[in-house]
Amino acid sequence: LIVMVISWLTLDYYENRELEFTQKVLVDNVDTGNHLRTMFEYAQENGLGADRSQGFGQFDLLEFEEIEKSR
Predict the structure, then answer these.
(1) In sequence order, which residues have a C-beta less than 8 Å from that of residue 47 and are 6 or more positions away?
(2) Which of 29, 34, 60, 65 is most buried, judged by most C-beta within 10 A?
(3) Does residue 65 contact residue 32 with C-beta atoms inside 8 Å?
(4) Would the CA dihedral through 38, 35, 62, 47 be positive or negative?
(5) What is the pLDDT of residue 37?
(6) How far apart, in whole angstroms, are the C-alpha atoms of residue 36 and residue 71?
């Protein structure tokens, strides 16, 4: 018995795009700024998403700004 599995992968690929967002953190007792920065720095090298093992999902962290907590 020979079984062949063929799958086609369709990706949307964008170059030179910028994404800006605000991350809300619900924990007050940790150094969230340093933790988040470290996570983003790790993710930019390793990628995000299911196809990161093929080199997809990588990005450049252009700016990281910690803002004051709003009440």
Answers:
(1) 55, 56, 57, 58, 59
(2) 34
(3) no
(4) positive
(5) 87
(6) 21
